[in-house]
């Protein structure tokens, strides 16, 4: 069962591509995303069994060497994280919104997983640093009390490390805003 997610961020596009290739050759993992990010970084996301993901991330980190910015493994990632990463979540109704803006792509994935495990919400999107100057953000929806709880959980877990830039909760978003988010 492929419940683990591994992320490695690099400050070199060439080294990121090389490391990603070695990660895929070293372990039985599935490549979710491998792409350049702003400003001149590269990120790779893989999924698979915990042991395989740990092996692949170690290979990616070691191959990246001084070009590795950060890496992270979520051993039991929530299933909603995967469609949110590709903006393919099937959200039918938006009653309230929560937005958590993070300092990095890795932190935004962590925030999405924290939010969906903390409260009964739906992950709409986890946006990774493309055109965002290296930042990321998470958009969630659900009942207002659940959204508030999820955003608070993100702030509690990530604020100490300085990984959250800003967060907000919007009750009953305007009807013209909703289609732009779907």
Concise synopsis of the structure shown:
With 182 residues, this protein is α+β, with helices and mostly antiparallel strands.
Structural class: alpha+beta
Question: Beta fraction of the residues?
Answer: 25-35%
Total domains: 2
How confident is the prediction overall: mean pLDDT? 90
Low-confidence stretches: none
Please specify the SSE layout and strand pairing.
Layout: E1 4-10, H1 13-26, E2 30-37, E3 41-48, H2 50-64, E4 68-74, H3 81-85, E5 96-102, H4 105-118, E6 122-128, E7 136-141, H5 144-158, E8 164-171, H6 178-181
Antiparallel strand pairs: 1-3, 1-4, 2-3, 5-7, 5-8, 6-7
Describe the structure.
This is Propanediol utilization protein. Its main location: other. Keywords: Bacterial microcompartment. It comes from Geosporobacter ferrireducens. It holds the Pfam family BMC. The protein is of the alpha+beta class and 182 residues long. The chain has two domains: 71 residues, BMC (bacterial microcompartment) domain (Alpha-Beta Plaits, 2-Layer Sandwich); 101 residues, Alpha-Beta Plaits, CATH 3.30.70. Helix content is 37%, strand content 32%. It has a four-stranded antiparallel β-sheet, sandwiched between helices. It has a four-stranded antiparallel β-sheet with strand order 6-7-5-8. A hairpin with a 7-residue loop joins strand 6 and strand 7. It is elongated, with a radius of gyration of 16 Å.
